[in-house]
Records
---
Amino acid sequence: MTEPRKAPIDKVVKPIQKFIQQEKSGGLILGISVIVALVLANSPLAEDYYRFFQHKFGFVFDGKTYLEYDIHHWINDGLMAIFFFVVGLELKREIVAGELAKPRKAMLPIIAALGGMIIPASIYLLFNPTGEVHSGWGIPMATDIAFALGVLYLLGNRIPLGLKVFLTALAIIDDLGAVLVIAFFYTSDISIISLLLGFTFLIIMYAGNKMGVRSVLFYALFGIGGLWIAFLLSGVHATIAAVLAAFTIPANVKIKEDIFVSRIKKHLARFSRVDPNDNIPTLTNDQLHILEKMTTNTERAIPPLQKLEHAMHPFVTFIIIPIFALANAGVSVLDIEPAQLFSTNVAIGVALGLLVGKVLGVMGFTWLAVKLKVAPFPTGMNLRNLFGLSLLASIGFTMSLFITELAFANEIFKTQAKVGVFIASIIGGILGYMVLKKQKAKTA
């Protein structure tokens, strides 16, 4: 049997697909986006760069404009809602059948994540106990999973699988913590009517799940057209709606694995027995009918939750997060005096909160949990690589920048916080890589 001839487009598509499938690619694209934003913000194009994100658009109906926000707002409340939706899907998958499904196995990353949130926030508050700057305590609590895992996967087989799983679980729990912090502490005036309307849509989606509705269109219609818009108007940050919506997506299969295998084998046997359509590029009616049945069975064997997560992850990683970075990472330092940059302790609090707080929190709480025999070290983990992972956890780009936009209205404070995030993330990433690189590569 000869291999099918490759189409010319494959020479373009295949390398792109290979790049997208690599774990480190997301962190690389995010890093490039941050650099581009910084260059634009400190170039002659700076004024045009900032003005672009201030353009407003909305929806006009009967002469009235609804949902009119600037592009920056649409990115942070709209596109980032999709990011949080995928975070919610990952959380539910981990809780249903992943690293968080078994309580004892989940305890160590949960404890590590708690330490990695409590200690950074405490260090920030130590430097900024009162005033408007006080509200930035949530900024150093977050870990950027794309960057952290990107650095980790650069090390290849030097890193045991258990460490990668541990960091992934820690970052996912960290994201959940950030979501809860946003929900309870970074909200504006709340409209009870809009909030109740949002929860009505949430109940409809939950009921659809229990009734066996598996249509993505159903959840998109009520999730975006109902739940997300209601939360957007309620004062509770709209990204919370995305996480709640994700938890209503079915995680079960219609047919079990053994039944699926049996049916596919039967269909393949039937397909091989039908008269072939020799030298003609189309299929016979019998062949088409059998393949349709195989497709239907395949659809029923895949949980909608995993199907959505798998389909949306590249879009979030390579489109949404880079756009978010372009819109939020542009810090202009040309017109800021060093004294003004450190006129408050925001930058210091954020930088030390991430770089020192994350390391002390993640490493300290993990070591304590192991010593108290709450949970054992994952296979392949020791104090050295735990220290390296803790340094990688101090990379806080995406979520830290996101919380910065919610925490402060003052542009100076925002700039100071972003500088703190950049300093800590760069130092933490480099030091984490250097510590973990000293591990010997595993031999096959």
---
Amino acid sequence: MNTRIQQLFNVQYPIVQAGMIWCSGWRLASAVSNAGGLGLLGAGSMYPEVLREHIAKCKQATDKPFGVNIPLLYPEIEQLINVVLDERIKIVFTSAGNPATWTPFLKDKGITVVHVVSSAKFARKAEQAGVDAVVAEGFEAGGHNGREETTTLVLIPIVRDAIKIPLIAAGGIASGRAMAACEALGANGVQIGSRFAASEESSAHEHFKKKITESTEGDTVLTLKQLTPVRLLKNSFFQQVQEAELRGATKEELLTLLGTRRAKRGMFEGNLDEGELEIGQVSAGIKAVQPAATILKDIWDEYCAVKKSMCL
């Protein structure tokens, strides 16, 4: 890959660890950054003071660049932004909202801004809003997803043709082979979530990590499309959601079923039956819980080997 992402973030490898809720705390972010990638803190599951604590610990654990992922629909977003400014964070990834709302403000403070999109239309809007790069995330990805249901294989070249700024591919990427494929499609780097969710440093519960490594093809489904589409591992909670959707449940009924702590209960507390287990399709290929540095090195080494073989 060219060096646009390395230069933008001042990192060794064009590999970004996704800012996943309940998984991306200071241990994971600092481990990825220390290994040469870009670690992200997932602020979507943190109160402002918890984010401040994770930033402080991350600074103690690494002298390398790291960033914060902020969902723009977060109810206390102004407080999160204030924490980012107070702590002099230089890289912010935004998602789930209109990038025009905060990008000019953050850029004016000297912050590098990246926005996550699920279509070429939103990629163009993000570029117009002034972001430094976009993450184009395909339908395969875990967690909250775009309504377009466009796969990464289709999405990346369409977005590449639509924008001039650096492009980071996401969704279904957990290997060097996938990274090389994304480069061929036009990406300048990759963002990886599910494989790092199953890392030793991930703040996810050990039961959830084990469940990821035991999953097989077809074990994840994109659901709750009436609310905000989210890809989940099948479990008792998923079955309840599926049954409710099949009988035509209203948005209000689905919101009641979802409750307020489902994701925390599943991913962070390890309730594999009644919790919301957000993970990508690529979980079917993740067979071991490994240190984040090992994961990053394996991906990069495989990527380099693929590139070398393609040039023979």
---
Amino acid sequence: MNEIKKVPIDKVVKPIQKFIQQEKSGGLILGISVIIALILANSPLHLQYHHFFEQKLGFQFNGSTYLEYSFHHWINDGLMAIFFFVVGLELKREIVAGELSNPRNAMLPIAAAIGGMLVPALIYFSLNPTGEVQSGWGIPMATDIAFALGVLYLLGSRIPLALKVFLTALAIVDDLGAVLVIAFFYTSDISMINLAMGLFFLLAMYIGNKMGVRSILFYALLGIGGVWSSFLLSGVHATIAAVLAAFTIPADVKLKEDIFITRIKKHLGQFANADPDNSAPTLTNDQLHILENVNTDTNNAIPPLQKLEHAMHPFVTFVIIPIFALANAGVSVLNINVDELLSTNVAVGVALGLLVGKVVGVVGFTWLCTKLKIAPFPDGMNIKNLLGLGLLASIGFTMSLFVTELAFSHEVYKVQAKVGIFAASIIGGVLGYLVLSNQSKKHNNS
């Protein structure tokens, strides 16, 4: 009597829901997408593969075409704006009520993230100090949070919760750093009129927040139709608009937790009394109204920010990121000339920046903070498993590939950077897993 009625479709839906809810699933799907992209780029279909993403898509009105861009451009500036919107939601949640809300707890992952951005950039810049290749310094600064956490969660409960929290906070601060780098250093010529229009819509969203507007439709219309489209036309990268728009989404509740509990208990009592003879499969009108009130109170007890983040996260993880990987990870290794690959230090700079710079930056800055007594190690963390986290932070797939597309116009440099990203990410992911796995075994045996 206490079980939910099972229907045949549950046999199909339940396994899918279970897979989506697992933390490691996102990294697994991303890895499969990268492999598919590499297979297509090195198959007899490689010309069709590359040509497909160069197809143009635009909108026509009164005989004129607007916003006509290639599929590749739409993916990187359109779909990835949704990815960055969710990143913005995560950032705001962490700042308002998460790991970054307590300055003392936040100091260690912030220091680790800063070190993990500065040292890789310096390593790359030291190897590529002049010319167009210089602009790739931002590529090894980024950590792929989905992939890094996916590897970490493969170890399951053997890993202390503090390590998972630390890596999550580090990656979120790292994402913020990447957003700032894109905003200040990878922005083309700016149209001040369009930028002003975007800021006007952003101000409208902020005012709506302060006035208590909680309609998702309100923020969607102003965010997409106003802020995103204006930033896209302004020359400032559209992903910046997505992050800024995310920060205007309300993070407070309309109905506090204790009041919500009291009201729900009242609704449950009313629901039970509304139909003493509950043998009928349908509900009474009174019960329908009570359930509507339950639904209203439930919505008022959930911050719009978390509602959006929860609803959009699976779409971003299982649709947007795989599409991005398919469009950007396809490197034709069959046509790579070793002399051409090593004609500059781009590949070496990216690989060493990620694999060495991330580890030295994350471990070094964290260790320095503990020695200066700015913040202590979290429970369960030591220098050895911190080394494992530093190696996982060298996984740069999504964000590094994204910055590569912004940094270079020369296709050869893009290929060199991607080879460096793949090499460092694979080696870092495997070594990080082995180090953490070994540490967890020692911890469990002790």
---
Amino acid sequence: MGSLSQLGAKPCLVIGRAGMDLYADPPGTAIEDTTRFTTALGGSSANIAVALTRAGGKAALLTCVSDDAVGRFCLTQLDHYGIDRTHVRSIAGEARNSLAVVESRLENCQSVIYRNGAADFQMSMQDVEAVDYTRFSALITTGTVLASEPSRTAAFRAFDLARAAGLPLIFDVDYRPYSWASAEEASQVYSRAAALCDVIVGNDVEFGFMAGDFEKGLEKARSLIAEGAQIVVYKMGEKGAITFSRGAEIKTGIFRTATLKPTGAGDAFLGNLVASLARGNGLQQAVLHGSAAAAIVVSRVGCAPAMPTREELDRFITFHNGPTLA
């Protein structure tokens, strides 16, 4: 297992998709009623990378994008946010970039995801073996990377190479049923990945899914510490989170805001959790930083552009009444 003490010394390497998000405009408009959209960088891994950089850290992305206008939009946006895209490969042919059409509303929020022939699933063994892992302080991935081949095998190869270089592995479960051939396959692959990782973050539904029984999700999260993980965060929505580490369990609440939409919270949480740990903060404070960032993001339009800067996060925490437990 890699040491989390080295976080911050070098950039984090994030594996997974970058995409284009189209938000119905103005906020509150249903997709079927709108005549205009605003664009933003999207994709869970790209969002995490943005969260890290906005919080003062450094990040690089490892993925594939389509060699077309949408893929080039993603590359331009990665440059805009200061994310190293040395290991982002453009691919020709029929593969297409991830595209999401989304609403900025809380009730009955619709999100239409286009993932047929997804370019990011074409990440190969050659892509991950071309990386010098000693340049990085951690490897971060989301569960979406594992949903299809050749991306799945390549990702597990990246795990091996990163561990050989002494990097901690950080895993956001991020279960998206539409990406998987079956729930059984997803459960098996997620369990395999979680057993290799130092930090695992997911919500109660995702851990219940991994356990094969929703009622056993908390038990599953706790068991991962016994199996070798250093940190496991079990998120419970408005009920806050329970964070497990070796010898400790920490319960934290949420920061309540005027929520505009439900998307982007998980990416903001993970990116700011890692950024806070990299600054040398304790685990409880790092979890609260992640929770505060999530609260900010759901109150703004978009995901990547909604990620708070470190100064915005500090100001939010200073003037907020504080986290509450449901």
